[in-house]
């Protein structure tokens, strides 16, 4: 059986050189050689290959293959992709989050939504369980 990261990379390599919808609601594949400044919508973004630096305000964070970051609210950011070669492009998968659904879940659990902390932009190493869920 193929390792989850290798399987995800193989799938995403078929994407065009841009954000590509997958047919699964809110899930996109990313294959890119460059990154534009943009307003990032709420999302969970898993880096599969390459490295990305995301700058939010004065804080810059570098994400490497196998790590992910969470964007809890719309936020203007500057992104930079670092490639080894053209044959080794930046690859990622992204799940756009619905803030209304998340707020409802928090309220249903008796938790009050709070202002996001900068720590949410720190890279977190994806667990085997998370990678398996992405493959499915």
From TrEMBL:
Gene Ontology MF term list: DNA binding
Record flagged with keyword Transmembrane: no
Keywords: DNA-binding
Single Gene Ontology BP annotation: regulation of DNA-templated transcription
InterPro entries the record matches: HTH-like (IPR037923), Tscrpt_reg_HTH_AraC_N (IPR009594)
Keyword flag RNA-binding: no
Superkingdom field: Bacteria
Every Transcription regulator HTH AraC N-terminal domain range: 24-136
Protein name: AraC family transcriptional regulator
Organism: Pseudomonas syringae
């Amino acid at each position: 059986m193929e390792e989850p990261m290798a399987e995800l990379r193989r799938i995403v390599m078929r994407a065009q050189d841009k954000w590509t919808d997958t047919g699964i609601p809110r899930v996109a594949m990313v294959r890119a050689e460059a990154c534009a400044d943009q307003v990032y919508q709420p999302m969970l973004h898993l880096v599969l290959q390459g490295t990305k630096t995301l700058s939010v305000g004065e804080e810059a964070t570098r994400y490497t293959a196998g790590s992910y970051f969470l964007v809890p609210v719309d936020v203007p950011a500057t992104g930079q992709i670092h490639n080894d070669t053209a044959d080794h492009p930046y690859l990622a998968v992204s799940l756009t989050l619905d803030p209304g659904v998340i707020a409802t879940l928090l309220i249903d659990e008796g938790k009050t939504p709070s202002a996001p902390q900068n720590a949410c932009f720190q890279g977190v190493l994806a667990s085997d369980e998370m990678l398996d869920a992405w493959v499915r």
